Every structure is written in structure tokens, then in C-alpha cells.
Amino acid sequence: MASPPAPLRRPQSRWLLQITLALSLLGSMAALPVRAAVEMRVALADRQARVSLGSSTPAQVKTQPGQVLGQIPQGRSLTLTAQADTLRLGDWRGQGFWVEPTAGGYVCVNDQWYRGRVWVAATAGQVTVVNTLDLEAYLYSVLGGEMPSSWPQEALKAQAVAARSYALYQRQRHQAGPYDVNSTTAHQVYKGLAAEAPSTLAAVNATRGQVLTYGGQLIEAVFHASSGGHTENVEDIWQRPVPYLRSVPDFDQQAPVFHWSQTFSIGQFQQRIPGLGQLLGVAHQRRTPQGRVMAIELQGSQASRTLSGTELRQALGLRSNLFTLTLQGNQVRVEGRGYGHGLGLSQWGARGLALQGYSYQQILAHYYQGTALSQVQVARRP
């Protein structure tokens, strides 16, 4: 088990933010009458064969209702395994247990350190680990996982508000599920204490409780690394129109992924796109107004295939759907721009605007059109 890092700052164990009126993106902050849990449930391991678990301080092992069964010694690492719906945690057997470090300690899961406590459970013979912790403490790490901690504070603050809004939106959607979000790019990158830095704590604390709303409701504040010059209308990517995810000019020209290219041999391309044979050319393409590929018809020596832009992106491992594909002799050349789906906040664009002197309120107003910056009342999960 890795040695526990020195704490940067321990978050408050619980907090309550009263609904207030303050500055908004356009001048007045709206109050949002929403109750949201102070705690986030983050899947650290979802149905893995085995998981290592430890704590920087003695950790109590409890049943789901809270009965204390015993204690894991400080610095001891246990291997969690499961058979059917029975979890093996040291000498304890059961469907699931809480593991709670004492005295403000940290929990270690697969050699990564996290704040809060964890719920460990057996699911069909595999192990699931869910980290439950304070929302703001969760964001300390998300911010460092999603954006370089060395970036300007206004960009970090914009990311903090977007990440908080996104987290609470997902929390509302997954009330009945075993967790609210996972720890990967499928939701938001969360690496525990390793991703925290003084700058990420400062940005989260400076925006504490602030979220984005539209019509009094939390928005799905999606974001991406770089749009390649212009974000997209959401209905051109995901079909469902949303008034606050509109196409706007981006300021991401300094992104290392603003322009990119990849080259494949004819053989490599054939392996990645089975059933096509040797690529002969591109017959037809359907694109968004900003140029992202929605559908593309490929002509091959064996057959023609029509793929969505996302399918081709995944098959070839491309950074975005904003690309052109050309056949050059015995090679397939892909020229592209940006990284990600191109919706909502552009992280490199936020950096570009921050370097020009724009505030995080102005950055958010640009990428999430017509939204209000709101303060939420936060309470414990029932």
C-alpha cells in the first residue's frame, strides 16, 4: 500500500449554504430552490475481480445500517474478493460493508488515496467500491483531474462551477443507482488526493455552492478539451435540443490538439474497419454546420460501409469527429481539429479567455448561453 500523502486541507464534514441573491452571469445571481446531497457517491471500482483496500488511520468496518463490526488496523492492506453475492473483507463475510477511516484519515483503494469513506459490495461474484465524500472535497480532485492545476484561476473557477453543476445533475439522475458517477471520462475524471493542488482547492472554495441553471433548473454542464475553433449546437451531436448548449466561437487556438493528424496503412485501416476490404475511397459524408462528421460512407474492395462519425472515431482512436479522411497511395490520412464532443465549455477555450482577462462568470456565460449562476442549498442525503 502506498504511503499516505500529507493533507492539503481537510474539508468541512458537512455544510449548508442558504439560498441567497448575488451576482449572476448577467448581473444578478438567481436563487435555486433545490435540495442536493452534500455527499457524492463515486464508483472507484465497478465489478472488478479483486481490489486492495487500506487506510491511513484505523478504519471501522460497519454494516449498511451502521453497526460496527470491527476495525482495520492503520497501514494494513486487505484484498477484497467476492463469490456470488458474498464479499470477503478480511475476516468479515457479507454482501457489503462500510469502511470508514477514523480521525480524518484517508482510504486507499488500489494504491490511490481518497477522502471520505467507501462502501464495498459483492455483485455477481465481483467487487464494487463506491467512495462517498463531501461534494466540495470531490471537486478538489475532479478539478485537478480535468484541468491542469497550473492554469489561470478564472479558468479553474469556470471548470469548478461546470463540474459541480454536472455532478449534481448526474446525482439527480442516479438517485436509485448504486453510485452517482464513476471516476473516468465517462463522467468526470476523479483521482483522489493525487489530483489535488492548492490552486484546485482555491478555485473550488472561491465558487463554493455555485452552479449553472436555466429556467430555475440545474443544467447538464457538459464540457470537453478543445472544440477546434467553434463549439456545436447540441442537437447536431446528440439530437436532443437544449437551449443553453449552443454553437459559439471558441478561443482554443493554443491547444496542442487544435490541429492534429493520424496516418494508417491500408492494412491497419482494413483491420480496424472489418468487412470493408481495402479502402478505395469515401463515397458520401454528412457533417454538422461546424464540420463534424455525422455519417460517412466508405467504399471498399469487398463492400461499402456507412458508419457514424462516432463509430469511425472510436474504431480509429481519433480525438474528435471534426476530421477529413483522404486516401494517399498506400496510406489513409486523417486531418482533424479539437478533442472531444465539442459541446459546452471548451477547457482550452476557457484558458484562452482567462489569459485575455475574462472572469469565470464571463467564461461560463459564453459557453452556456442564457444560463444563470445560482447558489444551491445543500443538505445531507436522507
Distance between the termini: 34 Å
Strand order of the largest sheet: 5-4-9-12-13-2-14
Radius of gyration: 23 Å
- Total beta strand runs: 25
Could you give a quick summary of the protein structure above?
The protein is α+β, with helices and mostly antiparallel strands and 382 residues long. It contains eight helices and 25 strands. The protein is globular and about 65 Å long.
Describe the structure.
By secondary structure, this protein is an alpha+beta fold. The chain has a domain at 226-343. The protein has helices at residues 135-146, 153-173, 198-206, 235-238, 266-272, 309-316, 347-355, 360-367; strands at residues 30-37, 39-48, 51-55, 59-62, 68-72, 78-83, 86-89, 92-94, 96-101, 107-109, 112-114, 117-123, 126-134, 181-182, 210-214, 217-218, 223-224, 260-265, 279-287, 293-300, 304-308, 323-328, 331-336, 345-346, 372-379. The strands form 6 sheets. The chain has a 7-stranded mixed β-sheet with strand order 5-4-9-12-13-2-14. A 6-stranded antiparallel β-sheet has the order 8-7-6-3-10-11, with no helix packed on it. β6 (78-83) and β7 form a beta hairpin. The radius of gyration is 23 Å and the shape is globular.
Write the layout of secondary structure elements.
Blueprint: E1 30-37, E2 39-48, E3 51-55, E4 59-62, E5 68-72, E6 78-83, E7 86-89, E8 92-94, E9 96-101, E10 107-109, E11 112-114, E12 117-123, E13 126-134, H1 135-146, H2 153-173, E14 181-182, H3 198-206, E15 210-214, E16 217-218, E17 223-224, H4 235-238, E18 260-265, H5 266-272, E19 279-287, E20 293-300, E21 304-308, H6 309-316, E22 323-328, E23 331-336, E24 345-346, H7 347-355, H8 360-367, E25 372-379
Parallel strand pairs: 1-25, 2-14, 17-24
Antiparallel strand pairs: 2-13, 3-6, 3-10, 4-5, 4-9, 6-7, 7-8, 9-12, 10-11, 12-13, 15-16, 15-25, 18-23, 19-20, 20-21, 22-23
